[in-house]
Structure formats: structure tokens, C-alpha cells
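re: ur question from yesterday

yeah so i grabbed the chain u mentioned. its 376 aa long if i counted rite. heres the sequnce exactly as i have it in my notes:
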Amino acid sequence: MRHGVFSVTKSLGAAVALLRLAQTYGDQVFDVKLKDYVSVTAAHDGWEQVTFGDALNMATGIGDHWPQREPNYPFVDEETPKLIQGFLIGARTAQDKLAVAFSYGRYPWGPGHVLRYNSTHTFVLAAAMDRFLKRQVGPHAHLWEMVVAEVFQPLGIFHAPMRHTQEADGGRGIPHLLHGLYPTIDDLAKLTTLLQHGGRHQGRQLLSATKLAEALYRTEARGLPTAWENRFGQGRYHRSFWSMPYRTATGCVFQIPFMAGVGGNVMVLLPNGLSAFRVADGGHYDLDAMVRAGEAIRPFPCPAGSAEAPPSRQLLRANDLQALFAGHTLDAHGGHRFPFYDLGPVHLYLACAMKLIDGMGVIPTGSIREPASRWG
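ran it thru and got these C-alpha cells back, copy pasting raw so excuse formatting
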């Protein structure tokens, strides 16, 4: 069965394509300027210095809304009528999609400084990579055919549907790469294994090892802050991969990379070599259970110098533990794309047979749903 994984395509499509180009033609491909491979029609010079790497990082310095760095709202240009109705639905050809992409204004800070998630930028990158490949190989080269032949097929993935633009002449269009990949669970297992192995498969280096290590937060490169935090620290975005900080009970600290797509599609690359993924449409993005389950199967190896003393915790008293948990739910309030990063208060509710009274004792209440925020 095939699944629509939406923006996971930015990682397994756009990032994999650029990492393959880097492996073939050198890591300097990340520093190539987009304007040298697409005809920029913007009414400003904001695209002059934007590189392939900037577009993959969602850090082009291009956008219409909220021209302030702090506080940052990374999705301010993403969920808008221009992008949804104008770009995703209305624009069918590559020329039409590029026209929408280049209709955005410019921010005052330029490329490489601030995360502003905008799917049109991934398409500009796709068009530029396709043109780059054609200049290297010839006019009949096609970016997605290259990715399938040189990356997917060696893994045993022989059919990889990808949405393309619809051209008036009926020709093969540009792969979207921002969404539109329809993998099977087996495909996801093979691709995440390739990423976990540093882009190497059966002795062959398929993807740039250096740039992939950066993307997976295995170097000092950490990308840009997402403006959201969890209890361990700040989330980041780099080379199309999100990340969440995590600290084990022994104090080992990790920045765990993951891919995410709307609906609740999440693929996590754990530091013990395991990968966990959820294909869903229920809007549930919580990673904590996936990370903890993976750690329970195989402990995370502590990187040298990463151990920190765990924070002190207040022990619960015996009468606290008398309230046996029949179930629980986490409910986060506030508009956000990936709910493990909270933009509003989080309330922990316990369904139990007893009700806590100011932490001093319990009384029977029957079926209740009461806040227990002091345990949060």
C-alpha cells in the first residue's frame, strides 16, 4: 500500500536529490546560486545570493509576512491563500509555479539567517536542480529519473511515484519535491536505513556523507531555530530535517532528526540506529513515545562530551501514588504545526478513581478529568 507523506517528500525527495548531486559533482553544489539555473522574475534582488543549500534550509530571506526576526513565526508564509490556492492548486505548469514563487517579497535580513518555511522555495530548488543536471548530462536528463535510477533502485525500490508539473506539451514536468512522494512502508524502511548508514549501501556511497551528516545533526552544524521548544531545549531545522532535543536519564544529550508531513506523518532517525515512523492523517505529531520506545529497544549511545547532569526531580509521595493511572491524554493549545513544540499552555489530565486535594490527600470522585499540572 502506498501512502501520501506530504512534506516528508522535502527530505526523501528534495534533500536526497541534492545529496546525490553533491556526491556526484561535489559538495560545492550546495553553494550554487539558484539564479544561475532558473529565470528569476521577482521585482527585487532578494534572490541574488540564494543558494541551493539556502532553499533546502528554508532560509532564503524571501517572503511576504512578518518582516521581523523576533519573535519568529516560521509558517507565516506557508498556510496562506497564495500558497494553497495559488501555488498548490491553481498553478499546474512549472512556469506558473515559478511565477507564484517569485511573486513574494524580500525580507531585510537576506538568505541563511532566519527559518521561514515556504513550500514554493522547495519547488524553485527542484527546478534549479533539474536544470543543473541537464547542463551536466544533457537536455534529456530528468532529475527524478536520476534519483530513482541512482539512489532508489540500488536499494530495491523500483517504482517511486512522484507528482510532477503538468506541461501544455504533454512532456515530463518538474518533480514537485515539496510533496507528492507516495512510498510504501518497505520503501520508508529502506530509505531511512540508507540515511542511518550515512548514505552508504552495500559498499557504495550513494549520498554525500559530509552533507548528510550535517543534515542529521551529527556534526557541529545545527541549522536554524524553529522558535519552539520542548522540555529539553530548542528545536532546529537543517537541510529539510527537523530536530528535537532529548536527554536520557543518564544525562546524554541528543538533537534527534526527523521528517514531518502534514496530517501526522513522522519519520524519526534515532541515535541508536533505529528508525521509527508513523504514517497517519489524524494530525498527531507527538514524538516522545516514538523516541522512548526506540530507546527501550536499544539504549542510545552517549556521544563523547555530551553527558549533562540530569535536572533534580521532586519525588512524589506515597499518597500521590495512590492515584493509579487508568489512562491519560496530552492536550496542547495554541496554533502550531508540530505539536511537540508548544506555543501555548499544556495541560496534563489524569483519569483516575481518586482526586488530589492540594497534594495533601485524595478523596474518591468516581470518573473525573482533572488537571494535575504540578506533575507536568
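noticed a couple things. Residues 132 and 238 are 22 Å apart (CA to CA). also The two ends are 39 Å apart (CA to CA).
anyway ttyl
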